[in-house]
Design a protein that fits this description.
Four copies of one chain form a homotetramer. Chain A has five helices and twelve strands. Chain A is of the alpha+beta class and about 290 residues long. In chain A, strands 1-2-3-6-7-8-9-12 form an eight-stranded antiparallel sheet. In chain A, strand 6 and strand 7 (about 130-145) form a beta hairpin. Chains A, B, C, D: It comes from Nocardioides ginsengisoli. Chains A, B, C, D: Keywords: Oxidoreductase, Purine metabolism.
Chain lengths: ~290, ~290, ~290, ~290
């Protein structure tokens, strides 16, 4: 029998990089979770145990920390581009570097005091080749709810279908969204802020006949609002909120008219979808090995 | 040999109660995680398998959901008091009911649209007896950081001490705090908002010679600000942020002057402390079996 | 207003200590999660920012690692006793040291190769004073199921009770159990192995009219089997397995006669109970601040 | 601007299906976590809010439970194939159904008593088209360690490289592995047992010059042992165990000769690789949207 090495990549995952900017008495904080991966001609490490071409994951980690100072963190995208380019430069065998960044937001309490905001986490995935780069911006753990203006009916029924049609239900999700830029010449922070505003406003304003329809509306609105985006991808668990059945309770006049729900953990519906601009350029390897989006 | 049943309690943990108030077109949301426990004379269930005195945990859960409607959720404390009293009434064998509530905050996006805020979670623990009740309010997952004005030096050294003294370090914690009221006649929401403000302001304003000192200052400030509180308890992991060592990097002029840190996961320092008002009334069973505070 | 410092303790939590014994070509592994805490006269650190009496948590961590070599890990209890005594010796202001150990089991694949076993985690909590020590042994994440011989009926009913009586249900729990020794002159490994055997056998052999009854039987059996134990404490979530309702499925002859269940996450019943030997000596501070058991 | 719907799928994730086989007094348990997804022509749901073609995720869940009885769970692969085929049959608009199964192992304590084994979780991913099916078997959470016979040296060095070469280190990983079958006519349980044996034995027997080399050897061994496999894919975090520095401890004769390590959480190296049989048939959509392997 004979076999060959297929796709492979290696890197350092989840370096928790915290950069404090203390040029003035009013400090700033950039709080990141950084993962890097290199792809290229590393077959000798796999098949012969020869590390000559391998830039250690420890060095990748060191670079991630150093670049928080050397380059700074104007935005996760900008930082990731610089880090990815550096890794390619440092490792001749690499054809491609992918850098994933999660950024945790903090609110200011004082000149050098902060409280972590929680909620949505901003993300960036940058894939750098020797002749260019692809950038995905995104958000995760964005937990959204509409307490009405959501229905689900007219669906296909089979022998195992017992779900009643719903005219008025809760729609809730913990959204993961990523969108691909067609350029690296972007004001990343302005683009992100605008994207988040668009997503939130569209979620709130869309009457939903299914989570799919809401996501599609959000994707279209985002592509409309930012012409430099090529596509949007969503991974959206349908966080079920089931109306609690009060019918067995022996309390006069007690009803549950869409007021009391149990928030369920598992199972959950899971809707995944892309909305792509007509005529968008080829996506390249932007989405390769991106968890939940490949 | 002979043995006897010691302390025991039983209940339903982590009912995820979501109450939507939809009396007008502008909905409100109360998003709770509710745990109940009963204590009393339930020995027959343990020793003889006789359930005659046992109100099922399923019924406790049902009551938690029903009371979100019947009583409503003006505040987690108020809801928990009503629920605890009801459980005692429904279960003659119970001597005491303890109700724990976590409340997740949401921000408004529209009349019936919300985005979960994340960050700190408001808590309440209510212990109801046949002749009264004790109330603990609190907060958890309150992640705080001072990027300077923190030192740690002058400590005891033994053969295994290698820690250098620190004149300027990051101080960060994910605080769990609870405080005991001396009354149940309280404007719970106003008290909570005020407490949070006091804790945040004191954390920001205190020069810290150790996390212990910061916590103590926060506790004193809270007791000062609210005369009706008897005591405050803290459980505070010292979320270590270690300065990254740049000395081995061969980059001219590259230094790390308190700017780049690695946020460590484990191990972590863990500081637990109470600040008690002089002359406070007996605490009763308020803290009995409260995770992390007993 | 005036206030005072109440109960307090500090230490280093969750040091992940891995000791490899490589005295021969056949290696052994001891894989531990170690938490230490000191209690005593540390008021100056809280109220005056004076660390002179404080042995840093960093030094406690260093000691935990060093003692895995200096003393070794014959058992988690033996290691914890040695570590606790050392910490008391090193820190004159301390009145008491508490050491918690979790031990992860590995199975052997070869002379120096191992696969982690998963499943139940062995635990020890040791509380050392200047004149003695208390030892709790235990187990956690011990997930048990009886697929029949479990009922729940004859319980109290109120207006919110809708639960039907069950003649034949699944009983499942993820058990946390701890038991207190009356001596430190114990063959800890033999005692633990015996305790686990007793708990498993009693769980399997007991017809259950409620989880309470099963736990009580397990506690009594353990005290019977090991006369040197003073008491046993359990924290046992009732991991509900609900029979799936097939009645709405339009498939001829399809029934669900106790064969298909949904394993629910939340909420869950939570039963906590102690079984205490008559005439057991005072428990001292053995259980003080032990998560879930205080 | 105009856009179009790109790739999309929907389904029900993480149904916790527990099947008890109670045909005799000696019960058996099959404990599964089941996720299903449908792909096909569901554009109307996204763009027009029309659910006529949509089999609800609730019905998919119901089918997952019902099929644990109707078809049974001879193996996760066999169950998943039956479930996937049924879903395609029930939903004309679907082109493809993907079913993921995790199976948790239990050890027997008695005729109807079990203790959950913990450790490695068996997995299957089945992708069913109208004219065939692809099957991936696998394992996850397989935590492996070699306490010697592992080195890492001769690697590329750049300005940020500070890692010393290691002649003797711990090699540990929490392996996720999946392998693709070329047929559905397989004794799935025998194949899985054999695969696990091959992976464990090869891990133990391979002197490692990097985790890459060990994984490659494991993949080659698996393809050698089972001619009906087309390829193997690994995702392997390098669970770093750092030798604890005892040099600062002031204890005579205390050294750390590869005996005491700290098990680190984050960051971790992450190695991902495929080993593919030469001449393997096209992989089809077997790996499409499979978390961590696409």
């Amino acid at each position: 029998m004979s076999s060959h090495l297929g796709f492979n990549q290696y890197g350092k995952a989840e370096s928790r990089v915290v950069r404090i900017v203390r040029d003035t008495a009013v400090h700033e904080i950039h709080d990141l979770n950084v993962s890097t991966a290199l792809r290229g001609d590393f077959a000798d490490a796999h098949t012969r145990g020869d590390q000559a071409a391998v830039l250690p994951t420890d060095s990748q980690k060191n670079t991630a920390f150093a670049y928080a100072k050397i380059h700074g963190v104007a935005s996760p995208e900008d930082y990731a581009l610089a880090l990815g380019r550096r890794l390619l430069e440092a490792c001749p065998a690499a054809r491609q570097a992918q850098v994933e960044v999660e950024q945790y937001a903090w609110d200011r309490l004082g000149d050098h005091s902060f409280v972590r905001r929680g909620g949505a986490v901003r993300t960036a995935v940058v894939t750098v080749d020797r002749d260019g780069a692809q950038v995905l911006s995104g958000v995760q753990e964005l937990v959204l709810m509409n307490s009405t203006d959501s229905e689900f009916k007219g669906f296909l029924r089979d022998e195992f279908t017992t779900l009643p049609e719903a005219d008025d239900r809760i729609l809730a999700t913990s959204l993961v969204a990523r969108w691909q830029h067609t350029s690296t010449d972007v004001d990343w922070n302005a683009s992100y802020d605008s994207a988040l505003t668009t997503l939130l406003r569209t979620f709130a304003d869309t009457y939903s006949r299914a989570l799919q329809e809401t996501l599609h509306a959000m994707g279209c609105a985002l592509l409309d609002a930012q012409p430099s985006l090529a596509e949007v991808r969503f991974s959206a668990p349908n966080k079920h909120h089931f109306l609690v059945d009060f019918s067995g309770f022996r309390v006069d006049g007690l009803t549950n008219d869409g007021e009391v729900f149990v928030a369920a953990d598992r199972p959950y519906g899971l809707i995944e979808a892309q909305v792509v601009r007509d005529g968008a350029p080829p996506e390249g390897d932007a989405w390769l090995a991106v968890p939940g989006f490949c």
